[in-house]
Amino acid sequence: MVVSVRTEPRSFNRLAARDGPTDLVATLMHARLVRINKKTQDVEPWLAEKWTASDDGRRVTLALRKGVVFSDGHPFTADDVLFSFEAAYDERAASVLADSLQVGGRKLEVTAPDPHTIAIAFPTPFAPGVRLLDNLPILPRHKLDASLKNGSFASAWGLSTPTSELAGLGPFVLAEYAPGQRLVFARNPHYWRKAPDGTQLPYLDRIVMDIVSDQNAELLRLEAGQLDVTNGEIPFDSYAMVKRAADQGRVKMFDLGIAAETDSFWFNLKPGAFSGDPRAPWLQRDELRRAISLAVDRKAFADTVFLGAGEPVYGPETPANQKWYWTGTPKTPHDPAAAKALLASIGLTDRNGDGRLEDAHNTPARFSILVQKGRPRHERGAAVVRDDLQKIGVVADVVALDATALFDRIGHAKYDAIFFRASRTDLDPAISPDFWFSSGTAHLWNIGQPKPATEWEAQIDALMTKQIAALDEGERKRLFDDVQRIFIEHAPVLYFAAPRVIVATSSRIVNATPALALSPLMWSPDTLAVVH
Amino acid sequence: MIRHVARRLAFAAFLVFAVSSASLVLARLGEGDYVSGALGIEARRETAEQLRARYGLDKSIGAQYLDWLGRAVRFDFGSSLLYDRPVRELVPERAVNSAILAVTALTIATLVGLPLGIVAGSRRSVASTVIRTTSIVFLSLPPLLTSLALVFIAARTGWFPIAGIRSAGVAAGGAALDLLHHLVVPALALALPLAAIFERLQAQAMGEVIHEPFILAALARGVGPRRIVWRDGLKAALRPVAAIYGLAIGTLLSGSFAVEVTTSWPGLGNLMLQALRARDVYLVAGCAGAGALFLACGTLLSDVALAIVDPRARE
Fold first, then answer.
1. Nearest residue of chain B to residue A443 (CA atoms)
2. Which of A374, A496, B46, B269 could form an S-S bond across to A301 if both were Cys, CB 3.0 to 4.6 Å?
3. What residues in B contact A444, CB-CB < 8 Å?
4. Cα separation of B81 and B73, whole Å?
5. Can you tell me the ipTM of this complex?
6. Which residue of B lies nearest to A223 if distances are taken between CA atoms?
7. Which residue in the set A155, A176, A178 is minimally distant from B84, CB to CB?
8. pTM
9. Which residues make Cβ contacts (< 8 Å) with residue A204, sequence separation at least 6?
10. Which residues pair with A510 in a beta bridge?
11. Nearest CB to A221; choose among B45, B90, B162
C-alpha cells in the first residue's frame, strides 16, 4: 500500500515532535495501552487487555497482555510502561506529550505492582480515566533508557537513526528511509494482534509512505493509481475531479459528514495587549465579537469557503461531536442591522458619513486578521469575514503570515484577530482541558493566565473542574452544556461553518474504516488491506 | 586566462560566504523560529525555551552567527534542526539529485534547442515558423505550468511516474532504468522552456551571421549551403548561447523550486523550500551557499565557454 505525506516526519521519536507525519509513523510503529476507536469514540483494550477503576475515579489498575514482544523480540513488560511515562515527564526531554498526560496540571502517579500490572493514580478524580492513555505510545526501555539517563532523549531516534535501532509494539517496523523520498514499513513479525477469525495482523506486508509535497501531484497520483491513500481530506476544489474518478471506479470516496472541529476566529483578549492603542476601549469588548457573529452570513460563508460542502455552525462543538454537542446551541441569525446597533452601543458609529464606523475619538473601526500563508481555506474564510464586515462599516485587513511567524504572534499575544484551525486530539472536552481552562496553553484568546482574567472564564474553569471529576456521564454532559452556553454568550472564539469531510482511497483498498480523526484513514493501519 | 579564472574563483568564494551569511541572518531575523513552528500554538513556554537552548536559538543573532562562522571555516556548517543531520552531508546528497535533473534537462535542451535554432535562423520556411511559434509558447509558460501540464498528462496516460526519483523496492539491476523513467516528467518540464530560449537565441544569432560578408564569400567560393550553415555559421553564432549556458547550468544546479516541488524531486530546491518553511537556519544557510557556489561556477563556465568560441572575449 502506498500512502502519501506532505512533509517528512521531524523525528522517529513521537515524544520529541508533534507534527502529523511523526504521529503517523508512531501509529504504524508503536502501540498504546488503550486505543480510542475513532469511528465509535469508544475506548478499546490494546496493550492493556482489561482494567478496573476505583469508585472515586482516582485510581485505575490495568492488566497488560502477556507474551507480547517488541519488534526486535524483546519482551514487553510493565517496566516499559513506566519508562514511557518517565520519558514523557522528564524535564530534560521536554516532551511534547507531557501536557497531554497531566490532570489539573499535575502528573499521573504510575506504578507497576508486578511485570504485567500497571496502577495509575490521578491527582484528582478524573472521569475520562484510561481514555487519556491513548496519547502515549509505549517505548522500549532496553533501547532508550541510556539516552533518558544521559539527558539526550530529546534527540534520540532522530531521522539519522539506523532502522535497526528502532523497535516498537505497533503493526509495522521501519525498513527503509530515503530522505526526501519515502519511508518503507514492513510487517512487524512479532505483532501481538490477531483478527477475530484468528488471522495474524497486520494484513499488509508493506506500507510505502511517499513524501509528496504538492497536493495537486498527490491527487493526480491517487487518480492514476500510483497512490492508495492520502493522509488527509480531499480539498473542496478537487471534489469534482475525485468524484469523476470515483464514478469511473478508479478511486473510492468516503463522505464522513460534517467535521467535528472547524476553523476559529478570535481576538486577542490578553489584558493590556492594547494599552496605548486608541482602539483599546472597544477592541476587546464582547459586543464587537457578537456584532461580528451577527454580521457574517454563515450560509454564504459555507458556500464560498467550502464551495457548498459545508454547514453553518454556531458554537465550539459541531453536531458531528454527537456526545458533547449542546443541542440548545442558539443559531445566531445573519442580521447586519442588529450588528450595527450592537456596535453603536459601544460607541462605534459612522460619524463623518463615509460609510465607515469610528469611535468617539474618530478612531476608525479597523483591525487586522492574521491567517496562515498557504492555507487557501483560511485566506478565503478571512476574506468572507472581511467582506461582510465591510458592509457594516468595519474595516478588516487580512494579513497572511508563515506558520512560524503566526505561532510566534499567538504565543506573544501580538495580534488583533486571527483566523486559524486549532485541532484537538480527542472529542472528549476533558482530554483537551488546555483549551477550556484559563491557565491552558491552548486557551487561544489569552494563553496561560495566572488567574482567570474575567468572571465568565472563572465560571468556565469551575464548571470544567467539576466536569472532569464528575463520574456520572449525564452530569458531565449537563456541565459541559453550561460551559458551551457561557462560551457562546461571551464568544471569545467565533465559528462560522464546518466543512464536510471527504476522503478517498484507491479502488484496491479494503477494510478502510474512515473516521473524523487527524489521520482519517490511517488510524487503524493493522486492519487495512489491498486486493490484487 | 589563469589570472582571470583565479579572480573568478576568489569571487565565487566570497559570494558563497556572503550569501550563506546573509541567509542565516535573514532566516533568524524574521518573526518566529524553528521551535515555534515545531511545537505549534499549544506549546508550554518552558518547553519552547528548553528547545531553543538546545538548538542555540536562545542566543543573539550575532553570537549565533559567530558560532556558525567559527565552525564553517572548518567546513562544519552545523546540523539541520529539521533532519537532525549535519548540513554538509545533507546538502551534497540533494545536490546530486538536482545535478542529475539539471544535466539531463540541459542535455535535452541543447540537443533540441540548438539544432532547431540553426534550422529556424538559417532560412525562412514553414518549418522555421512552426519552430518559432512553438518556442514562443514554451517561453511564455513558466516551468511551474509546464510541469503541472506534464504531470497531468503523465497521470492521465499512466506512461510515467508523477513524483519521486525512484520506485520503492526496485532491484539494483533496474535502478538506472527506473531513474530514467522518473526523470522524464521533471527533466522535460525544465528542458522545454530552456530549449526554447536556446532556440530563439541561436536562431537570432544565426539570422545575423548568415548575412555576414564571410558567409557570402564562402558561398561565392562554391562552398555548399549546408556546410556553411552547420560549420562556419554555427561556430560564429554560438556566442550568445555560450554566454548564457553557464548561467543556465548554475541556475539548474541550484535547484528549481517549482519543478522539484511539483514532481516531488528530492533536490536542493525542494530541500531549501522545506528549510525555509521550517526556519531551519543552518540548512537555509547551507542550501543558499550551495546555490551560490553553483551559480558562481556556472558564471565561470560561461566565461570560459565564451572565451573558447569567441577569441575576442579572452582579451
1. B42
2. A496
3. 41
4. 20
5. 0.77
6. B155
7. A155
8. 0.84
9. A1, A172, A187, A525, A528, A529, A530
10. A529
11. B162
Contact flag A405-B31 (C-beta cutoff 8 Å):
yes
Among the partner-chain residues A7, A216, A408, the one whose CB lies closest to the CB of B36 is A408
**C-alpha to C-alpha distances, A56 to A48, A62, A121, nearest whole angstrom:** 21, 16, 11
Paired residues of A173 in beta bridges:
A186
Given an 8 Å threshold on Cβ–Cβ distance, is A404 in contact with B278?
Answer: yes
Query: Which residue reads 549535519 in cell numbers?
Result: B86
CA distance B252 to chain A (A): 19
Measured between its terminal Cα atoms, the distance across chain B in Å is 9
- Answer whether B264 sits within 8 Å of A212, measured CB to CB: yes
Backbone angles phi, psi at A55, to 5 degrees: -65, -30
Given its phi and psi angles, is residue A448 left (phi above 0), alpha (psi -120 to 50 degrees) or beta?
A: left
Query: What pLDDT shows up at residue B39?
Result: 81
Which of the 8 DSSP states describes residue A444?
Answer: T
Of B38, B164, B277, Cβ closest to residue A17: B38
Tell how strand A2-5 and strand A206-211 pair up: parallel
Measure in Å the smallest separation between the Cα of A400 and chain B Cα atoms: 13
CB contact under 8 A, A408 and B33: yes
* Alpha carbon separation from A377 to A216, A262, A373, A449 (Å, rounded): 15, 11, 10, 31
Q: Cβ contact (<8 Å) for B48 and A411?
A: yes
d(CA A106, CA B220): 98
Distances (CA, A) of B23 to A439, B278, B299: 38, 14, 21
Inter-chain CB proximity A99 and B42 less than 8 Å: yes
Digitized pLDDT (tens) for each residue of chain B, 315 residues in all: 677 778 878 888 888 889 999 999 998 888 888 888 888 777 777 778 888 888 888 889 899 899 889 988 888 888 898 888 899 999 999 999 998 998 899 899 989 988 898 888 877 788 888 998 999 888 888 777 888 888 888 888 888 888 888 887 777 677 888 899 999 999 998 899 889 988 888 888 878 877 778 777 877 777 777 777 777 777 767 777 777 777 777 777 765 778 888 888 899 988 998 899 889 999 999 999 988 888 888 777 777 777 776 666 655
The mean of the pLDDT values for chain A is 93
Whether A99 and B45 lie within 8 Å, measured CB to CB: no
